Amino acid sequence: MSAGALDAAEGLAKAAFFESLWVAVVIPAAIPIVPILYQAQGNPGKLWRAADGWKDMVDKLEQSQQKIEELTRRVAKSEWAGDDRDAFEGKMDDYSAQLDFAIVMAWSVIVALYILAVIIAVFIYMAFIIMTLLAIFATAICIAAGTIVGAPAALQLEAQANQFAAMAYKVLNVSSTVIEMVSKGAAIAWGLFLTTNMIGQLFKGNSDVFATFGKATLNGVDDMLKGALAYLLTKRTAGVFGANPATSLGVPLSSRVGAMTTAEKFAGTLMSADTLNGSNILGIPFSGIGNSYGSEDGDGDGRPDGHKYVDDTQPHR
């Protein structure tokens, strides 16, 4: 599988969301599906490419390890021995051990990103197929209800459609809950990896590790704040839709029977604008929050802020 094959999921996610709005007007049991698909917008292809980028970093780390081994073997022990040689080899072993840990951590990130990309893409494709079927149901109901002869059939179709929508909601809700749990688990695991690495570096004599972490945090504070704001706005907008009671795994305990409320209709309009815009329109006034440079390209030299920090703080050979 490649990133290109996953990029199509972004458009399908949008299509599935707009289908859900149409279906929700006709089939009440499909209303709880709307906020699920609203929060499922994204491009898993970007996750796949991010994993490929981490693989490139692993290659660089492995090259660094090879250089360390070359330096260690460059002078034979018969030509250089003693305490200085032991201290040198000990320091090289420390560097190599840190690189080993970094490579293991990087591979854990790579595997997690690949898995997340695939399961998110599968979820989006599944949601699109389900919503297309429900859209056909909703259209058939409207056509049948528009004729005197077809009115009784419309009622029967609506009952069947509500049953199918309730089952679809169960499948999509459980699936989205699982994806959320996997994502949180990966984030916690990466946090533990980073903490362990920082403590290990501190004990190995790197007294600047916390200062470096602080600088990196400050450098990324704009993205963190914007991401947190987008998350809160998305959750708040989706929360307007009354969620059915469910178990911890997302299995619904009841089915929606009432039509959309006025608040839900308003939220649906806002969701549509967000989906078309590709981001929360309410967050646009705060899009520059935390950006110390005032623009995406840092100080205007064409380098993104993250690249600028790395280029200006890391040693060059």
Would you kindly provide a written description of the structure presented here, covering whatever features stand out?
This protein is 73% helix and 0% strand. It is mainly α and 317 residues long. Helix 4 packs antiparallel against helix 5. The chain is elongated, with a radius of gyration of 26 Å. 21% of the residues are buried. The model is unreliable at 291-299 and 313-317 (pLDDT under 50).
Entry summary:
The protein is mostly helical and 317 residues long. It is built from nine helices and no strands.
- Derived from helix and strand composition plus strand pairing, the structural class reads mainly alpha
Main sheet overview: none
Tell me the number of strands: 0
User: Fraction of residues in helices?
Assistant: over 70%
Assembly level: single chain
Principal-axes shape call: elongated
Low-confidence stretches: 291-299, 313-317
**What is the H/E order?**
HHHHHHHHH
Sheet-strand content, in percent, reads under 5%
Itemize the secondary structure elements and their pairings.
Layout: H1 3-26, H2 33-38, H3 44-74, H4 83-145, H5 151-203, H6 209-219, H7 221-239, H8 262-277, H9 305-313
Which labels suit this protein?
disordered C terminus; 317 residues; 9 helices; mainly alpha; single chain
